[in-house]
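Retry 2 of 3 after timeout on previous attempt. Resubmitting structure tokens to design endpoint.
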């Protein structure tokens, strides 16, 4: 009945222990394996995420993303999306927590910071899809939106493709200009970086990643002009009804593959298309990779809204590392009181009975409490 807590520092220590590249490689492999599970639809129950959107006073979103691994455990990710965080509060746009439960008794087994994990798993998901849909010799990467997600998009894709040129654009020029410095830790010494306009980025790319905080109705983030006929696009930024990044004309001619259709159809690029125009989801794509690789010569889109299986996979990787090197704090989070008496144990001992407070009649007589009235 102990709960393992993995703080942001614990997660960082886990990454340092194995190394950035080894971690990304393991997450890519683990996600591919989870998607390739021929019994996946029977093993996992993944409802689409739900949550609250608000303007309080800035635009924000709080969601919960559940997953049930039948006969094993349950998982919930809680995630907040606040696009004003970086420049108003000095915080990441996405903050999240990962929770895992024992379905035998409801016990909360693990709580982990999910902020870094979210960025890593999003990059890994793009890599899994791109390995099937993009040309294997893709060497030019385009990034529209150069924030945190762009870092892990480059990292993950560089593990599978011979990336030599990176074209970068962001609505904040400082973010675009600082991108090369921020990815120095990846040691991509042979890669050349170019900061330019969005349409130029799109036109140069073999693989294009859009990872923006575009507002609802604010897309597309580039024009459907001189793109390479075989361009593969990882559309990462759409995560809300009415919020899209890609031109409709591009979607109409492309093979569009959602990560998780029930969710992408509501809040991804897929919301712009009728069902008959949609391609395979990520699990179908991986299971039929030989068949779908034939699309590498045409325009393809991976509609990446992010779903709970990705987060469940990365938490499993972090748990393995934490157990290996003894990371985290174990605490007694939950009550183990008498199942028939919620007050049992509060007194400490029979000789020191629980003091509820002054007698109710005495309190009312003294004016310390008010009797319930019709307006209370």
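Retry 2 succeeded. Sequence:
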């Amino acid at each position: 009945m102990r709960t393992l807590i993995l703080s942001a520092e614990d997660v960082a220590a886990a990454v340092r222990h194995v190394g950035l590249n080894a971690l990304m490689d393991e997450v890519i492999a683990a996600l591919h394996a989870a998607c390739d599970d021929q019994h996946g639809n029977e093993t996992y129950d993944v409802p689409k995420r739900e949550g609250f959107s608000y303007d309080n006073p800035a635009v924000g979103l709080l969601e919960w993303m559940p997953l049930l691994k039948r006969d094993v455990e349950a998982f919930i990710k809680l995630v907040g999306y606040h696009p004003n965080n970086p420049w108003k509060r000095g915080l990441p746009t996405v903050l999240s927590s990962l929770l895992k439960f024992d379905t035998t008794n409801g016990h909360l087994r693990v709580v982990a910071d999910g902020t870094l994990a979210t960025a890593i798993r999003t990059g890994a998901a793009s890599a899994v899809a791109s390995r099937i849909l993009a040309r294997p010799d893709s060497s030019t990467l385009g990034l529209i939106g150069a924030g945190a997600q762009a870092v892990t998009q480059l990292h993950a894709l560089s593990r599978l493709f011979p990336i030599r040129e990176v074209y970068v654009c962001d609505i904040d020029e400082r973010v675009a200009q600082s991108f090369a410095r921020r990815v120095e830790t990846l040691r991509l010494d042979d890669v050349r970086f170019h900061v330019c306009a969005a349409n130029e980025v799109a036109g140069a790319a073999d693989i294009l990643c859009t990872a923006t905080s575009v507002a609802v109705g604010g897309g597309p983030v580039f024009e459907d002009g001189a793109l390479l006929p075989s361009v593969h696009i990882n559309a990462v930024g759409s995560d809300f009804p009415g919020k899209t990044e890609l031109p409709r004309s591009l979607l109409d001619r492309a093979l569009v593959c959602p990560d998780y259709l029930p969710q992408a159809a509501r809040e991804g690029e897929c919301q712009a298309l009728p069902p008959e125009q949609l391609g395979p989801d990520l699990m179908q794509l991986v299971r039929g990779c030989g068949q779908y690789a034939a699309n590498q010569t045409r325009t393809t889109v991976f509609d990446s809204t992010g779903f709970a299986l990705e987060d469940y996979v990365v938490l499993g990787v972090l748990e393995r590392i934490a157990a290996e090197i003894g990371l985290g704090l174990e605490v007694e989070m939950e009550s183990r009181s008498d199942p028939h008496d919620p007050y049992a144990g509060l007194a400490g001992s029979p000789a020191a009975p629980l003091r509820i407070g002054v007698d109710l009649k005495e309190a009312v007589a003294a004016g310390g409490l008010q009797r319930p009235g019709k307006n209370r």
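Attempt log closed. The domain at 3-116+311-331 is CATH 3.30.1780.10 (ornithine cyclodeaminase, domain 1).
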